[in-house]
Task: structure prediction
Amino acid sequence: MNRHYLSFRNRRPPWVTLICCGLWLVLLAGKADAGDLKSARHLLNRFCSECHSGSNAEAHLDLNQLSAEPAFGTQFRTWEKVIERLQDRRMPPSDAQQLTDSERRELIENVGDALDAYIQEHAGDPGRVVIRRLTSAEYAYLIEDLTGLDLIDDQDVASDAVGGAGFTNAGEAQFVEDATLERYLAAAKKVAAHAVIGAGPLVFDVNPGMTGRELSAIHRIQEIYRQHGFRTAAGEGGKPFGLEIYPTAFYVAWRFRHRLALEQPNATLPQLARENGLEPRFAEYVYSVLSASTHSFPIIEIVERWRDLPAPGSTSDQAVRDECREVYDRLRYWQHLLASSSSDEEEASVLTGDVELTSESSFKATLNWPEGASSASFELSVLPVANAAAKPLVRWRNPRLRFRRDRKWTPYESLRSIVALSSANNVQFGHHPMGAELDANDFVLGETEKLEVDFPIPSGATSAQLVVDVVLDVKHGDESVVRCTVSDGINPGETVAATGTYSTLLADPDGATYRWLKPGIQEFAQQLPEISHREPAPSDRDPIPAPFDGTYNCAERNYFHAKVKYHRDDQFLVRYLLDDATRRRLDDAWADLVTSFDYHDEFLSVVARKFGLPASRRVAEMDESWIAKLPAEPRAYIERLHDDYVGAQRALVVAQLPHVEQALEFAERAWRRPLTREERERLGAFYSRLREKDQLEHAPALRLLLARILVAPAFLYLAEAPPASPAAAPLSAWELASKLSFFLWSSVPDDELRQAASAGRLHDPAVLAEQARRMLRDPKARRLATEFYGQWFGFYRFDRHRGIDAVRFPEFSDSIKQAMYDEAVSFFTYVVREDRPVHEILFADYTFVNAELSRHYGLPMKDSREIAKIDGTGKFHRGGLLRLGAVLTVTSAPLRTSAVKRGDWILRRVLGTPVPPPPADAGSIAADDVQTDGLSLKQRLEVHRRNATCMNCHSRMDPLGFALENYDPIGRWRDRYRDGQPIDAGGVLNDGVEIAGTDGLLDYLNEHRRQFYQTMSVRLLSYALGRAELASDRPLLTEVTDELEHSGKLSDAVARIVASRQFRYGRGSNPATETDSRTTGKQP
Amino acid sequence: MIDRQTKPAVSRRAFLRSCGVTLTLPWLESLASAGDSNERSAAAQPPIRFACIYFSNGVEPAHWWARGEGSGMELGPGLEPMNPHREDLVFLRGLFNAQAAAHKSAHLGRAPNLLSGAWVSTDQSEIRAGKTFDQVLAQTIGKQTVIPSLVLGIEPTELRLEDGLSMLYGSNISWATDTKPATKEIYPARVFDLLVGDNKGRRWDRSILDEVLADAHNLKRRVSRSDGAKVEEYLESVRSIETRIALAGHEGRLEGWQPTLTRPNMTRPDDPLPQDIPVHMQLMLDLIVLAFQMDKTRLVTCMLNNDLSQMNFGFLEGVQGSLHLDLTHNGRDPELEAMYLKTNQFHVAQFAYLVRRLKAIDEGERTLLDNSVLLCCSNLFDGDKHQADEMPMLLAGSAGGRLKTGRVLDYLGAGNPNRRACSLYLSMMDLMGAAQSRFGDADKGLVGL
Result:
């Protein structure tokens, strides 16, 4: 017979086990009827019941009652203790009547057999799990997963305590009182306040109320703009994005044009667009521009280049794509040129096609050079645009340079004073070709292809800036439109796109060339703009829309920026770049934005002020007859404003019903299962009652509905419906999904798990295991590091640890504390998510530190504020559980290390073989590690150990704890105590094994690895199930332990647990085996 | 919700019913049934208040003594802060809980049962420590006030096991049932809100609570009966909040007596947990005074620290180290013994502060202190030895003149049946006007009190 009890959890040193095993072999020879305590009951009654019976039983152990109702399921540890005491001959006590050897054997054997028979019979019993309530941590994680926001800062929402195997998720240690419920209520209302209830679908924002609506709306608008629009300019307005849109459109248009040659005669533009990830509307639009019958300049340049793309067959597909990019480069060139030439450099003019050229402009060009160069150059050019015959002249006025050196700018110096002699000859300073007057520092260029200007680099300078004004000299040269360029050429390692090239267009506003060119430029800017929209929240340097005064810093503009704040200008984007659904989302977001404050009234007051209208009206109070009486110009604005207002208000009303539906979906996620029809009706009725009977507005009523969902027992409790009989029955798919996600993520199932549940696939243990493996890789598995490993090893909430004396250890700062906590959490997160071999938990040669913690430990690590993995730390006494700063600190006293605490911690938490509590009157040793008696702490402890009652346990604990004595109370390595006494790390265990230092301890643990895996199995199962270990778990625990020993993967152990009957089944109470049989309820 | 201006004639019962709450024990009835408080309730007499100030880890026995009587009473060094209040004191020596003293777990087997005298369960899958006498009171005379009882503390529950037992046991001296601790509040701001919060403006909370109450009833039907008991906790909580909201709409007392304060005379504490321990403690004590003065509750327990507390006493001049590991278990080092004494005195000084403040409040015939009976105690005597066969205990206040103070009562030699702490609790329940015939291991009050 395979013995499950005692053999699994080895509570004693190996030699004891050996003797026990020998004893068992002897005992196994004469075997009694399994599962029956007949002879044991008789013997217990005869020899033990004098002390161990009745209400005043010694040690509260009533063996008469226990043997009548053995309750092996929950009382197996008591029974194991009975066997132990009998084996040790510590019971009956020497002054009591003794059993004969054969009676003793018979008793031990009978109890052992009965226990084993029980285990065999009940293996896989899911056990009674007390209904669980969310822990504080789970509550916060749930809210985070449901809203995407970290809203719960209260670490004590639920008044946590640990129960069972030492975890907060054990139901029996979870309570609800009115104070708890008040906190739930407050938290739920807080979460509900963060719901954005506007025209769009229900979302949550980090800001509550209307601020949340406003910021969420802006966020959603920007997200749509960012995702669908483009901004090719990289000016102060932001970084460029959507750069792929034009070249892709050119390519799609090319494919459509050549669809016959490409053997796709039926291909449509939308289809090709979708294949290439482009919005069909945009493909159709660009194709319409490219295929128009007539084109103005400069659009014609782009169109011709596109038409000249090679036909299919003559070149590779990639080559065509590359050439499309070149067409786009030309487009960029013109966009950029026009934008930089426009006297108003704002984006708006480009978008509206309102480009005005002037005869003057200025450059501010940054010049770079290869590292180590002693001289550098830049190039200038002047080229007529569109009219090749013209002979223009351009004055380059007051050119000056400054250098960047030591992160500072040098003062400006005139270009003439610095350029090298050779260039000075190229550039004729102070000389006008037509003999006109010219400042000595200026020069004049006619049509110039490329003029190179060299200049020496002062030592230490890293870059330069050239500033120069350019003026078209229409008095002495031809009227024309010219392009002036400053470029620092291509430096090594630079791409063409990255060169510092600056161009501008100059034109005589009254000249014939410009009059001819102007409509084309405007057409170009409108049809192929470089931005698809303007920012919804213009910064204060952006102009305000017409008709208002856009002069910088004028009262009207400032008022607009401060009060109206938002302005929508995204027609190009909406018309050509959005599908219908996105248009709706965008409209909703805008409606949310402009209804999040009195936008329309503010806008109205600007209009009213502008046109001298009475300012007292509100948009809501306007009627059409009033508007109709207004003068024409303001009327146009006010009509538009009024329409917009009415539209936004209507959008809010239209969204109300969908919101209620979305709240029900929210409830399904929060309650982790589909709602019953009755529940749907009740939730809906609650909302309706608030609206109709209580006359609440939509938003507050919906917030109450959300809060009500989050205070419901269905949210707060992890209820599993018990089967009708006490026999175990499979959990429902939703119960399984929930159990799994609470185990691994301390929170609700994600969409994938929900889908698996809804498809009924979770009943397959293989699917369950596969989901578990997926979930362990997910970032949310970090919660297994904090919740499971943190509680198991005692670094839970270490970031709030207050057990260190701040006066003695000022170095133990909040940031070090945080870094130590992050170290531990990062370490276990890594081990879990990367599925590292579990022995690395003890023996890893790496750890996770930031620069500050690295200094604290004396590790060589570069500057890093972030926690990062660092390898090969073993030689610096770091790596693995035992050498984590957080663990070394929580096992210390405020002023000193505690070998007893650390030893007890190793026995209890790592090896799973705790020593019994000390006798109450054990007395104590002085607290500080430096004392006046000259004895070291270790010597003092040895005095204490000489006491026979103490020795038994301390000889097991102290040597293990002393092995870590080289780590001080805040986890630093030390060779001496503060008073200079050397550290003597280690000692001899009661079985004669010597432990020398940390390395010796690690060797010892390596030899006893299986015990660690056993502890891990027990803790993991208890944590997964939310209950303490039962005798009937032994076979599963042996399997899990074997798995850990052989495969060494946490994922395999977890897979085994979630596929087990314990995990997948549930049951009510079993009257035959459990003490709570009297309270078992029948299903109504 | 109820417009009392237009409907002044509404009866109290009808009012309560209209709030959707069935009160099993509205205060008048319960008051009338509360034994001999009949004679007090008829007159405009102030009620008797009870507070227990608990400190963990015992005392230094050599410094914990008292002798003599009244103004001639002498106090040991550990009790030094009580010198100005000797005449208000009853010093008790030699009381203990037999179940605690017999328990193997030196700390957790001897802490949560301080006020119940019950056995602490060692079964891993069961939390059980026995309903405490303050909560027996809360469930009887506690119904006379908006808040049945205040359960306060300074330190949160540690999330670990000690000797295989949940640290829950070391963090709770008030137990609402045998298996459930009363929720301890450690945030001063939350206590303040509970005392003076506007329950009248909670119409919408009520609407939520009504809904989830129905949810819980449905859930209770679906789960097993033992889980149903857990769900019942939820139900009770919902009901008690609803009751509080309902009562809040009902201004004006039915009793002739009026509390001396109707609005708080202290500002609301800040939201975060105070980092400074003496400040934190004083805030809690001030809140107790406020609760009594406004008659929001008449029953308070307050744990100055948890059992096994690592509270760092560096804030006391000349003291360093933590209460439990460094100072209590001091290895009889003279320097550390001196520090330990200072922690004892500090704890007693907190009690003295409460006494002084209550004494300064005039409630007509007597001071608030004299309308109270206060208990200052720890669950261990010699902290270093985890000695539980006697406990340090002090009473203050004369319970409305029914308790003679200025006395030293030594039960050490009186024989175990006469040394039961539960006898004291029976006597105190009697003084509070809620006499019981049995409690814990006692069936008679404390002889000679």
